[in-house]
Every structure is written in structure tokens, then in C-alpha cells.
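Ticket opened by: R.M.
Priority: normal
Category: complex prediction / small molecule

The reporter submitted a protein together with phosphoenolpyruvate and asked that the result be attached to this ticket for the collaborator who will pick it up next week. Submitted input follows.
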Amino acid sequence: MTEAILEENEVSESDDTSAEQQHKWVYVFEEGNGENKSLFGGKGAGLSEMTRAGLPVPPGLIVTTEACNAYYDNNKQFPEGMWEQVVEALAEIEKKVGKKFGDSSNPLLVSVRSGAAFSMPGMMDTVLNLGLNEETVQGLAEQTGDLRFALDAYRRFASLFGEIVLDVAHEKFERVMDRFKAQTKGGKDTDLKPEELRGIIAAEKEIILAEQHAIPDDPYEQLRAAIAAVFTSWMGRRACGYRRINRIPDNLGTAVNVQAMVFGNMGANSGTGVAFTRNPSTGRKELYGEYLLNAQGEDVVAGTRTPNPIKELKKELPKVYEQFASIAQLLEKHYHDMQDCEFTIERGKLWMLQTRTGKRTGAAAVRIAVDMAQEKLIDRKTAVQRVTPEHLDQLLHPTVDPDAKAEVLATGLPASPGAAQGEVVFSPDEAEEMAKEGHKVVLVRLETSPDDFHGMVAAQAIVTARGGMTSHAAVVARGMGKTCVSGASAIDVDYSQQQFTVDGRVIPKGEWITVDGSTGRVFLGKVPTIQPQLGSDFHELMKWADKFRRLGVRANADTPLDAKTARGFGAEGIGLCRTEHMFFGDQRLAAMREMILADGVGAREKALEKLLPLQRGDFIGIFREMAGLPVTIRLLDPPLHEFLPNVDELLVELAELKMALRKRKTLADMDLLLDQIDEKRRLLDHVNKIREANPMLGFRGCRLGLLYPEVTRMQCRAIFEAAIIVKNERKQVSLEIMVPLVSVSEELKQQVDLINDVAREVMGEHGMKFDYMVGTMIELPRAALTAHKIAQHAQFFSFGTNDLTQTTFGLSRDDSGRFLPSYVDRKILSDDPFQVLDSEGVGELVRIGAERGRSVKPDLKVGICGEHGGDPRSISFCNEIGLNYVSCSPYRVPVARLAAAQATLETEAAEAKSKQTAKQAAQTL
Ligand code: PEP
Ligand code: MG
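Result attached by the on-call engineer:
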């Protein structure tokens, strides 16, 4: 294969240009190319590219995605001319292989596979051996000199056609197989004799007949029906569900690949396999995969027989192995990425059946990107773009603590890394329901199929008793970054009893287990887990990302420990320290409540005195951890309901005290109880007095500091005193004080005056002077719209997009979770706006706020610290509108660094492209 051939891959579209000529719906592989996946689908594109490069690919044709879309536009009829083009292309295939479709002495058999632009579970997969009937099966037997083989091919075809095209339940065919296998000596597929295979075929046909269907005898009718079935599966429930979750548009359509059959089940020098050009779990540069001799592809994927590691092929068929290894290398060099290849060996000859970009774990993605850049297969920019935010997320997954005492129940294959735990469930529906109710579940199945996808999404982890590293469960879980152990064969799953058994030990539904997808172990109970160590590849990639990004990345951190974690992940400062979060602990909460409930300034100041040293202590810890980096401390913003006792609970406590009073034994008891009742009543009265109907829009944010200036005073004193203490340790403190929930510029002005007063006071007391900044959150629409006025008093802005989303949509942050998912399901909203910034509405206010703020202060530093600061798509938006930084939770920091770099690189690429287009346009003029 030469690069020159591979690069010359424009579609020859000259046939389409004449208006009289019919639209081209069908292409033979030689006519397709690897670039146009949207027309040929991923599989068709890969097969075309390999064919054009001269690799051994069985001849075939592609019915395009356009044809699929036209089928739907055309009331589920093939578009005009499509079928004739299929027949014509099939004739070309016949010529190439020297066999004839439907011929009773020398029949051509084909496989029919779906192939969308993105690989998609839930779509019709494969019908093999299409073209067989009672006559052609005889021809196949003569052609191959192997009656048993021909009948085996026929029984496979009948069950696949029945299941996939005619929608007959798979289990029904499986039961027939099991029954016949049980009658043989060895009990395996390969033990079935011709007469038993004939029995199976007859039984399969009966099953189909019982469901009012029949397999057409005419191979062309079979093909017609199979192509229509592929088109229909595009709009099937599972495929639509998958597309919705993965945000794949419905109007892409699927292509259909019809390809001459080659057989991996023609004896000991035949076989089939799947292999990756690098290890998809670790990223190591090695061929990684599995194969089975004397088997067809479905045997590997279905997990019904346990395949051998690809390395063993080197011993069994060394020439084929060498050829495959060199093709794998060639493909990697050509695609500049790790490939996932399917192959079949027919009587010692290697055939390539598929190549596509291989799915990989987060760890593998990082290692492959870094290695390939170092091998000069890709540049560093490409390496940074190759790793997705989801990959990094996966990399940050916990692992099982190796020192923990834990009972291993079973060991299977380490199909997808990470450690997760939950209650055992056996059905995907139940997994989904229980997860909705807040349970953590582990889905345990014999093996999985696309039907189980929703349960896999809902589960923390997946365990299967059967299947290899490329089984459905393994591939899908890896793609989702979900922990999975497959092929844990010691587990005996009993769906009817809702339990599994290992070595006689029964684990019922609801029992907790822990799954370690990195080692393949399944443990009983909740085993402690630890955070992963990030390797040198990760740090290297992050270094490259940091070079390319324009946006700064800070962390939202409220404690010294958070600050330390954030710094470890590469945060360049703290963008939001929520001071109210420092008071969630029991003792601290009591002091905070005392402050909130205090009657008058005196009482409040007394409570604040208790809070001051606690705050100062926390600030000291944070300044130490972040020495040299900016720390934005936000003044108190407690929606009061988060800190007040619950009224219902108070009522219950009061009732209990009254009951106790009735049962009192001594007079002293009575006095004590009366005092307690009195106190509880006062508390209840007080809480009722300050309780708000809508605390999120109530006495919070700067409103608190304005009406209770002693609160702001205490906080600022704690902040400045802490800064002085840490500065005296010769550490650099870069302090930013932030005022929350401002809507009117005067609010900010008054708070800034107060902050400056305290600063002067404290610095005077300590004879020290230093710079600090005062800025504000922009989290209300009015603030965004009047940002030019607010900016006059602010040295920086930080967009609080949680509140800004709440107030722009008029949608409660606390309650919308109940119905927002339905909004997304019904496509009223494309995403939950509390997760992904609504760029059209809320984002527009951010853009306006930043622009208006900078119109009076061009150098105004502007960041974002709502949850969106850790969301890749929102980060891309922040980059686009020119914010200075994003701030997110510590564990999202690496993701944000990567997403920020990718956003810059995407913008650069788009700019370069538009420059190029403009240049070309200028040249043509
Ligand atoms: C915000 O509103 O986006 C924000 C960061 O503040 P909080 O979530 O604390 O209200
Ligand atoms: Mg807020």
C-alpha cells in the first residue's frame, strides 16, 4: 500500500453532474473513500480505503446514507433506481469473485451490515451467508466439498435472518441450538453432524413460520429485505435512544454494506478475529486482540466461545500473523491513529473486514496521544485534541485500595477500568428504576446486548459471566468510561431467582458488591477505593495543553485540602472560595445559626466573635496552600434556609418534649423540660419570623452584608489578618475579595467602602500595607445589563452562572431537577442549562456583561465560577467570548485545562480555514 494511493481519495462524482443521469445511490468499494464517512458510513469508508490501497478486502458495495434518508422521505420505499444499482454492483462483485448470486452450483454468498457514520449499538448488525436456500446450499456443499460446512452456514443464515430481518427473538434460536447440541457427544457447535444441522434448519424455519414469517427463497428478495431491515433499524427505539444520549442527529442515516462472504469456519487453517493496533486499555504499543480458529465473526463477539489472545496466532499461523501485523502498522501510519480491525482467515488466506478508529480507555487515550506525538506520527496539537474530556474524567477514576481487606468473589476480564460499587441488580429496567430512586447499582448479566444499554448507562458498573474483551459489554462499557468486568465465568447467574452463585455462595439482588474493572476482580461488599496516581504521560499532555490554551483555569475550593487538591491538578488559583461552606460542620453550624438568629447587633457581634477565629484559620490554610497564586474569597452568601433548623423537625422535637413533660418523674425534671420547651418555642418563633417563601431570591448575597455590616466586617478582618499572618511567613498572598449577588451598582460601592475601611484598620494595627483587589459576582440579569455601572466599583467580575441561569430562566436551582430531564427528553431544551451553559440566553447576558464592564475598564479581569466552568462546551463558549479564566471544582481542573486548549485550537483551525477560503476566493476572482 502506498501513501500516494491512500491520499488520492476524492469521490468521483462526475456521474452525478448530468441532470439526466440517475442519482448514484450505490458504490462498489473501489469507488468509495475513507474521507466521506457521512455518505459511506464508517464501515464502508474504511473498507473502501483499504480496497483502494490494495489490501485484501472481499469485494463489496455500499448503499449510501443518502439512500437511507431517501427511503424515509419516500414513505419507506427504496428511492428510484437504487435497487437496480444494487443489482448492477452485485454483478461486478460476481465477476470479481467468479461466483454467481443465487446460482445453484457456484453460489455467491454475501454479508449485509449496517454502517452509520458513527458506530452505534442498537442498529441492525450483520446477516451472514445471505443467498442460501435449499438449492444453493447444495451448490455451496459442492463448491467447498464440505456438506457439514454448507449446512452450518445455512443454519447460521436462517437464525440471523430470522432474528435480525424478521425480528424473531434470538433466544428461540438459541434454545434450538442448545437442544441439538445437548444430543451430541461433545456438546459443542462443532460436534453437530449434517443430519443434526438439517434438523436445526428445519426447526428454525418452523419457529419463523410460527411467527407468520418466512425466509424468501429468492436470494434477491433476501437481499431486498435485509437492506430494508438495516434502514428500519436506523429508526428503531434502541438506536434512537443511543443517538439521543450521544447527541447524534437523526438525519444522518445509515449506509448498508453488502460484501462477498469469506469463511473463517472452513477448518483449522481458517479463523476470525478482532485486534487493535495498540492496547486499548493501557495504550501500550502492541497488537492486542483475540481470534478463534474455525469460527465466524459472530462467535467472537457473542462470547459463546472463549477466544485466544492474538499473540498465539503467531504460533498457530505465523505467516498470517506477520501479514496482519504489517497491515496493522500500515493502517496506523495511514490513519495516524490506533485502529480496531476485524479479519477473517479463509483456508490460510487473510482478509480484512473492517478498520476503524479504536475506542480506548482514558489511560490509553493519553498514552497513545503522547506516544504518537513522540513517534512523530502526529503533532502535539493533534495529541491534545485526541484526548476527550471524558477520557480525562475516566483517568481520574478511583481504584480499589490495594491494602483494603476484601473478599474476592470472582475474577473476570479487566474490561473497563475504574472501581465502582453498588447493589446487585439483574435486569436493565430495574437498574434504571433503582438508579432513578437514588440507589447505586451494579448490573450483573450473563452477557449483555444492545437491549441492556439503558441499564448499563444507569449502573455504576457492569459484570458479565460470559464474553471476552471485545464482547458487547466490554466494548460498550469502555466507550462510556464505565467500570466493567466481563467473562467472570465463576458466576452462575439465575435471573428467575434474582441471584447469582459463586462456589455455592448465594448473592441475592440488593447485596453490595465492588467491581474493579482494572484487574477484573469482583468483591463482596463496599471495598474502600483510592484516587488514581496520574502518570508522566498525563503530565506531559497537560503541559502541552497549557501551552496552547488562552483561558486561565482556577478552582472552586473552600478548604485548605480542596486548595491542595486543586493545585495538584494544575489550578492557577482559586476562582471561588464560598465562605459559607466553611460552616457546614456541627460546631460551626451552631455558631453560624447563632449569628443568623441573633436579636440585634450586640448579639450578632457576639456570635461573629466565635466565627472570626474559625474563618481566619481556614483562610490561613488556604493562603498557605495557594501561596503565589490568586485566591478569590467571596463574602458570605447564604441562602438562609441552608443554615436554619427545619421547621417540621422543630415541631416534632417540641412535641417530643411535651410528651416527656407528661411522663416526668421529679420536679427538677419538670423545670428542665419547661426550660427546654421554652427555648424550642422561641427558636421556632424566630425561625418562623425570618423564614422566607423564596430564600434563593431573598435575604442573601450582598444584601446580608449591607444590612448587617458587622458580618462583612468580621469576614474582612479574618481575611486580612490571615493574609498578614501568611505574609509574615514570607509567603506571597494574592488576595481578591468578591461581593456576591449584586444587582445595583450602589450595593457594590457601599460594600467596597466597608471592605476598604476594614483593610485600612487591620493593616494599620499590624503596620503593614499590601495590595488586594475587590470585585463582584455577576449573577443576576440586572447586573449583567448594568455592568458598565457596576464595573466602576469593581476590579474584576466573576460570572455566577448558576444563579444567572436560575434567574434568567426563572427556574429554581433546587427544584428544576424534577422536570428538566423531561424537557431534554422532549427536546424542548437541548441540554440541562444548569450543566451546559445556555449560550443563546444566559450566555448572551455573560457576553453583554463582559463587554459592558470592559467598555469602562478595558483591562477588567473577567471569569466564570458557576458549575459551567468545568463543562467543556461551556468552556469553549467562554473562550469564544474572550473571558480570562474559568473556575471549577478541583477534580474538573484537568478537564478544564484540556477543554480550554481544545477550544483555542479549534478557533485557530477555524480561522485558518476561513483565511484559506478567502484566499481561494480572491484567487478565483
Ligand atoms: C453561581 O451562582 O454561579 C455561583 C457560583 O454561586 P453559588 O453557586 O454559590 O450561588
Ligand atoms: Mg450564586
